[in-house]
Specification:
Ribosomal Protein L22, Chain A, alpha+beta
Length: 135
Amino acid sequence: MVRSGVDIIEIDRIDRAILRHGARFFNRFFTPQELIDSGGRTPALAARFAAKEAVAKALGTGIGDVGWREIEIINGPQRRPVLRLHGRAQQRAEWLGLVSWAVSLSHTHEHAVAVAVALQAEDSFGPQTAGVAPT
């Protein structure tokens, strides 16, 4: 089974959050490696923010049930996005039997968008439909 999530965000929204909250914003939403990989560029940060939302949707939790920094989007070979899950996000993915992920990021001058796709093992014990939480 394939699970997916998509999110779009206005880059200006991230700019405003940075101006308003400064370092607190960075520390709440991004890991140190994400900040390094983005080079502090707002479009790159916005794309990672959207990717975190997209991954949470694919997990069937929304971002409220996992921490922002538990979903990490880093640069892989040729700067392609690579997903790392930690804590509750990783536990949820394992429970669902998610065995492989692909994440795609893009942005214009105004918007950033991300898509997350996960493959669920055929023999997984987790639910085969979104919205069912572990007990």
